[in-house]
């Protein structure tokens, strides 16, 4: 599926997925105005990644005050692998997701746990993580995902964010970015 007028962006995503297939991890923040096509580009990536496992999360404005809400969306189906994590990381993520009681988890340990979980999931088959509406992520999830994004290397994980803020606000600043702009109308269309 090619997106009309988005050949450059589709080629960038194709290259990113090829790198991940070759065993390298990649991160990309797709930024632009509301309705510009960020979600369609994330959908394109999912369509082109039929050989990948796919995990998705979507920032929800009404959940911005709920710590780890978006992270739970992304990792919820992976929780059967918690026992493969080192005990401090497993405990921190278990508390963050309400699987056990405890005081507020150390966010460094939560970030390490998510990195370990994604790496474990991708060990046998590449993993594509799609995070749409990242501008609405709760702070704890955004912080953990930015932490993970900066540490991915050779795990065969693609982490794609769609956000209204092309500059990458919310901890995503400095990550590889793709700005999506409006399409130019062709004469006679």
* Rg, alpha carbons: 17 Å
Strand content: 5-15%
Low-pLDDT sequence parts:
none
Task: Please identify the oligomeric state.
Answer: single chain
Description:
This protein has 189 residues and is an alpha/beta fold. The protein is built from six helices and five strands. The protein has a five-stranded parallel beta sheet, sandwiched between helices. Helix 6 links the parallel strand 3 and strand 4. The two termini are 21 Å apart.
Structure characteristics:
single chain, 37% helix, globular, alpha/beta, 189 residues
What's this, in brief?
This protein is α/β, with parallel strands linked by helices. 37% of the residues lie in helices and 15% in strands.
SSE layout and pairing:
Layout lengths: L6 H15 L4 E6 L6 H11 L4 E6 L10 H7 L11 H10 L10 H15 L5 E6 L6 H11 L7 E7 L13 E3 L10
């Amino acid at each position: 599926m090619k997106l009309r007028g988005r050949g450059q962006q589709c080629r960038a995503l194709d290259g990113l997925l090829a790198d991940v297939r070759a065993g390298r991890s990649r991160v990309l923040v797709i930024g632009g105005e509301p309705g510009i096509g960020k979600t369609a580009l994330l959908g394109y990536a999912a369509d082109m990644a039929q050989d990948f496992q796919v995990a998705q999360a979507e920032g929800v404005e009404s959940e911005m005050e709920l710590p780890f809400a978006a992270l739970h969306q992304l990792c919820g189906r992976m929780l059967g692998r918690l026992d493969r994590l080192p005990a401090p990381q497993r405990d921190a993520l278990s508390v963050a997701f309400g699987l056990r009681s405890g005081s507020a988890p150390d966010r460094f340990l939560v970030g390490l746990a998510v990195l370990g979980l994604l790496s474990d999931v991708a060990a046998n088959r590449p993993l594509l993580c799609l995070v749409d509406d990242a501008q609405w992520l709760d702070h704890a999830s955004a912080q953990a995902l930015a932490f993970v994004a900066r540490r991915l290397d050779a795990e065969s994980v693609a982490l794609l964010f769609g956000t209204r803020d092309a500059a990458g606000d919310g901890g995503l600043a400095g990550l590889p970015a793709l700005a999506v702009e409006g399409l130019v109308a062709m004469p006679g269309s």
